[in-house]
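Figure 3 (text version): structure tokens given as input.
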């Protein structure tokens, strides 16, 4: 890489510095490739507001994520390496308690525990202000990624390498010359779009190279709340979740909204989250636990195929790549997928069929 009389030459121009763009850039740098990461820093990115939760068993079915066995150790190693390099803490191990909402849920767990015993064990008794007559399970490998610190650490690393730029990217500003990509003063072998929901059809009016990709992205809202009554050594899930931060502060979330594709906190979103929590966070006398809302944020989860991310290239432009669809499990998925995509982009392996962006019809 370098500045020449006619601009900057890099192997890869990466658009977006969320989890996708950040992990990909780090993996490419590791392989000695040169990158320029461009981000418009307008505060709408989903990584910025995500709670960064890693939860070994999720959903009604209490299932591990796709490829979790393989991807979780890679994620842990990736974040720990960045911690070591930067001296800043990113990955916080915190056991997760799932409070059973019903007898049916408890029976479901008991039917599956042989198969899932690696990820959780049943708790004989639940402590805390919960509707807890059915008990619950504890997942010792739960964790959260401090996504904001993560973004700062990667940004600092990229700035040190002369590989970061604040700018708003527009596809119409790109030209293709002699098999290279030209944008502003930059000439790159490839441009890789890592724009999250903002690179998917219809979100904020996006219409462009990848508008043929079907998606079911979902807006989500998160609250910052003060609660006195809970043990901060754990995170709690049931209908929604409560994740400890410091000094009695908790993150509370999250709802799913498939209609409003924006990152604006709404009264409806706030009520959704609080109503969810009020179904299971209860004092002994059945009263609601006092919660003071002191912050509120929103973002859009880029969902292409549930929580299976996608990587690949534009069907007609081999110089244009794509890494998206991190869904609601970006913290877990991004490092391993980025490692694979970076290896592919560096000519080390074929693209994994299961991660490939499949074109419709
Ligand atoms: C409410 C909520 C809660 C969540 N909770 C969790 C959780 O607990 N655990 C978890 O793992 N995941 C969670 N997620 C999901 C997680 O946020 C995503 O999986 C992940 O952050 C997506 O990363 P990304 O890099 O694809 O997108 P983004 O983080 O959105 O990054 C895209 C970046 O591209 C930039 N960009 C876009 N277009 C342009 C352009 N034209 N020019 C320049 N820059 C551009 C944006 O500014 C942004 O910085 C949550 C999401 C939401 C909304």
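Below: residues designed for each position.
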């Amino acid at each position: 890489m370098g500045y020449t009389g006619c601009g900057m030459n890099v192997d890869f121009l990466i658009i977006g510095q969320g989890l996708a763009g950040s992990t990909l850039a780090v993996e490419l740098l590791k392989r000695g490739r040169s990158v320029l990461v461009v981000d418009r820093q307008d505060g709408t990115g989903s990584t910025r507001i995500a709670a960064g939760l890693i939860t070994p068993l999720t959903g009604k079915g209490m299932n591990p994520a796709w490829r979790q066995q393989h991807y979780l150790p890679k994620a842990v190693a990736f974040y720990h390496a960045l911690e070591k390099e930067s001296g800043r803490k990113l990955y916080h191990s915190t056991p997760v308690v799932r409070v059973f909402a019903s007898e049916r849920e408890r029976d479901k767990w008991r039917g599956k525990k042989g198969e899932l015993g690696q990820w959780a064990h049943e708790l004989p008794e639940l402590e805390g202000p919960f509707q807890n007559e059915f008990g619950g399970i504890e997942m010792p490998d739960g964790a959260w990624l401090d996504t904001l610190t993560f973004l700062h650490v990667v940004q600092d690393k990229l700035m040190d390498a002369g590989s970061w730029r604040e700018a708003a990217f527009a596809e119409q500003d790109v030209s293709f010359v002699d098999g290279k990509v030209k944008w502003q003063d930059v000439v790159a072998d490839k441009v890789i779009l890592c724009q999250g929901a903002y690179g998917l059809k219809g979100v904020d009016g996006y219409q462009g190279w990848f508008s043929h990709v079907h998606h079911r992205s979902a807006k989500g809202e998160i609250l910052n709340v003060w609660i006195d009554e809970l043990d901060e050594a754990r995170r709690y899930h049931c209908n929604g979740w409560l994740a400890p931060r410091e000094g009695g502060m908790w993150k509370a979330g999250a709802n799913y909204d498939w209609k409003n594709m924006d990152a604006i906190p709404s009264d409806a979103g706030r009520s959704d989250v609080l109503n969810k929590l009020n179904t299971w966070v209860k004092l002994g006398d059945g009263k609601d636990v006092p919660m003071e809302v002191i912050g509120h944020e929103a973002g859009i989860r880029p969902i292409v195929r549930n929580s299976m991310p996608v990587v690949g290239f534009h069907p007609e432009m081999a110089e244009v790549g794509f890494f998206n669809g991190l869904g609601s499990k970006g913290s877990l998925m991004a490092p391993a997928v980025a490692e694979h995509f970076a290896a592919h982009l560096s000519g080390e392996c074929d693209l994994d069929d299961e991660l490939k962006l499949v074109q419709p019809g």
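The mean pLDDT is 94.
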